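**Sequence with structure:**
===
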Amino acid sequence: MKVRMGLLHKATTLETEAFQRYWLEQHGPLVRSGLPGLRAYWQNHVIDRQQRGIDFARGTWNFDGFSQLWLDDATPAHAAFNDGGFAAALWLDEAAFIGELHVVTAEQNVVIPVPEDGQRARLLKRMSTLRRPEGMSEDDFRREWRVHGELVKQMPGVSGYRQNVVVERERVKGRSCSHDELPIDGIVELWFESTSTLEAAFASEAGQRTMAHATTFIAEITAFLVKEHRIV
């Protein structure tokens, strides 16, 4: 399954609360009402930028939010977001609250399914961007990340875990770019009951094994706690 993800920096003229309110109350309904082929749309509002539980080099990314959109397989993503009248309205509205927007398309692997019975709304979510070491191929990174997923399954207190392997990049929306221009290889989604559960998971014996393996295929992790909002 492929997911289109926006990596958002808020407009410098807006405080965080105003940015989040506009994104949720104005932009969200606009996307929901007019984007063709939209199957699901989630907003992830950044609420904390501490690494929490891990001792790992943090990158310089300072995002304010992550969007996630799933389209019908028959809907060409580039045309939906960049061509036509609705796309023009979308770009205009983004300029009202976004200062900088990067876009990635990722192949999503659900390792531990997220509860959907109402429990999800009560969980704490952490999203992290990953960068592979210099000299490691994309194939080697993906192989090791699959191995890593099996280790995460052994960690106590993990309520959900998804891997998003980046396959396409746009440093500037609408323009494809290279890995060097947007050096993000993956985006992690993890769910826990609380920050204490998160920290205990990584402090556990299984967590220590998992992070020891992480050092073999990840050069940089940049973690964010986020508040989820389902739009579609």
User: Anything to note?
Assistant: The CA atoms of residues 105 and 162 lie 15 Å apart.
